[in-house]
Design brief:
The structure is a homodimer of 345-residue chains. Chain A has helices at 6-15, 54-57, 64-81, 101-118, 168-177, 193-199, 213-224, 234-237, 240-248, 275-284, 314-323, 328-338; strands spanning 34-37, 44-52, 85-95, 121-129, 134-143, 159-162, 203-208, 227-230, 266-270, 290-296, 301-305, 308-312, 342-343. Chain A is α+β, with helices and mostly antiparallel strands and 345 residues long. The first copy, chain A, is built from twelve helices and 13 strands. In chain A, the strands form two sheets. An eight-stranded mixed β-sheet of chain A has the order 7-9-6-10-8-11-12-13, with helices on both faces. In chain A, strands 1-2-5-3-4 form a five-stranded mixed β-sheet.
Chain lengths: 345, 345
């Protein structure tokens, strides 16, 4: 069922012949960060690497500060999704040999500031030179005791939460790639590090929305064999910017969750009997998680908007962007054509 | 003194504004891998990232199996140079979207086989798509107890050793870039993991030769404020292939140590009173390290070849390849022009 999604099938094909470490707690796809047991201790390491390549090549990220920021944040968000304490990053920077000092200073300032916000330090790195820029990082976190949080463990009836309103990743990508010249400073997602550490105490599964909210729900569905009904109306789930864009462009609200560029919130499930304690803990952090709905037995994604419930074909939606060769216009036309079947309200 | 070398100055400029982690044992440049103390334990983590970028772009590595092999080995060698036990790697692969299945299978086979030789596992990774291929990894190792080995600690009088004969990295690069069509399978360096773990018990400093042997000696000189006299004739230090190439191309033997493409041996120093115990340990491993000479007070690099001693201007040599824009012919002409001053034999 995982391999119905093109990206999952590619990962399986690339990683299929590798042996797993006896120290590794998670199997392929099961966790946002790799979880490594440290012999003779209670510690678990959380390791992650993510590189910013296509985002630079397509022009989605062209501001050097944003590129540096995102290279750290994409990795930090995966540490958050396993509930790890941040330790540090190693940078992997391929930069143009003719890059000006001002450009590099902004890139490094983005790295530095993102690290400071997340409680990470730059531990080291590798710098290479090529006209084809790409910037990434490798992040290290620690889970001091207890079971780490993974994408696995959700059961029907568990409550589905988001760490915050969704859709800002799509808003940024839509405006940037349609040449609407939004202020580059408008998109500065912050990994939910502190929230992730709290979520780890209560959640039955967790994953970040870095690849888009619907992709996240679809992946959790495939991994856990359960579906999700988002009974909270999408109008309340979407960030106000996303809702405004949907209205001004005549997009259905769910389309703002369908793009592959996410916003680094956490989606997680909590067993209903643990909800009161979880909300108490969130309240103590001054944090207001958003209840989206609940897991259900049927492996499908249902959303509520306006007066009706809609079932979304998330497999087709996830594969669509690649099939469109990454062209935003074609992707949006494709979403319109999908015309999800309305259910009774 | 470090910043006399262009690459050192760039690293300083890129990393200068970053704060260091209180858990990190090494400062910038002081270690082949980053060394992170784990609170509440005796464990030290060794972390490293290295990406294969210029080697692919220039055509130095064009065989997919070799690219996969080197992406692992370059990182494994840095784990070896701090004496760490290997744990695993995360891969960072940017591959052409149109890459054929056979090409990818060879790339992954190179990764898999290099990991198996080094006792590493693939823990995870990130795959991106671009016409501009680059492949790298992040490596994790463990140092279970005691002080990790760094590039720092050598004193005048310490004996200088290499884990093996030198110059094969230069031979491969020379032949490949001069279009001599050597068999791609001829270059398969193996990181000195087991030897590094033994060296850690005895060495006063250690560094791998991944950037070339003279660059390594020069860097150890700058970091420790001592020089090195290679009293063993270069004819005995060079690998037979390197010596043969020097003879057939009328190159001075030292030129085979001057290129920036190394062979992943370890250069390290041992206090003279510890040498007997070190050699006993090496013998037990069936390993024959090569004594090159000794550290000396004067911060210079002296080599012996033929009937004379030569002092090498390693700063000029290290900066030369970049100044030649990476062109091998110009680099070799530059080496010839350097005409190192002969000393009395």
């Amino acid at each position: 069922m995982l391999n119905e999604i093109r990206e999952n099938a590619l990962i399986e094909r690339l990683a299929g012949s590798f042996s797993r470490s006896p120290l590794q707690l998670n199997a392929l796809q099961e966790s946002d960060a790799e979880l490594i047991r440290l012999p003779g201790t209670e510690l678990v390491l959380a390791l992650k690497t993510d590189l910013i390549v296509e985002e630079i090549e397509t022009g989605l990220y062209d501001d050097p500060y944003l590129i540096g920021w995102m290279a750290v944040m994409a990795n930090a968000s995966d540490l958050a999704a396993v509930g790890a304490q941040p330790v540090g990053v190693l940078l992997a920077e391929t930069i143009p040999p003719e890059a000006e000092a001002g450009f590099l200073a902004k890139l490094q300032a983005g790295v530095r500031d993102a690290c400071a916000v997340c409680g990470l330090h730059v531990l080291g790195g590798d710098t290479n030179y090529s006209a084809h820029m790409q910037v990434g990082a490798f992040a290290l976190g620690l889970i001091p005791n207890g079971a780490p949080m993974t994408r696995i463990g959700c059961q029907a009836g568990d409550l589905l939460y988001s760490s915050g309103a969704l859709g800002q990743g799509s808003v940024y990508a839509f405006c940037k790639l349609q040449g609407e010249g939004r202020d580059a400073a408008a998109f500065r997602p912050v990994a939910r590090i502190r929230e992730g550490q709290a979520v780890r105490l209560f959640a039955s599964c967790c994953m970040d929305t870095s690849d888009g909210a619907l992709a996240t729900l679809d992946q959790l569905m495939r991994l856990n064999g359960v579906g999700f009904r988002l009974s909270t109306p999408l109008e309340k789930i979407l960030h106000p910017d996303a809702l405004a864009l949907a209205r001004s462009r005549s997009l259905a609200p769910w389309m703002l969750l369908a793009g592959p560029h996410g916003e680094f919130e956490l989606l997680f499930t909590v067993r209903s009997d643990r909800e009161p304690q979880f909300l108490e803990c969130a309240d103590a952090l001054g944090w207001h998680p958003l209840c989206l709905g609940a897991a259900m037995t049927e492996p499908a994604i249902h959303v509520v908007a306006g007066t009706g419930t809609t079932v979304l074909d998330t497999a087709t939606i996830r594969n669509l962007f690649g099939q469109c060769g990454g062209r935003v216009d074609a992707f949006i036309q494709g979403l319109h054509r999908l015309g999800p079947a309305p259910l009774s309200a």
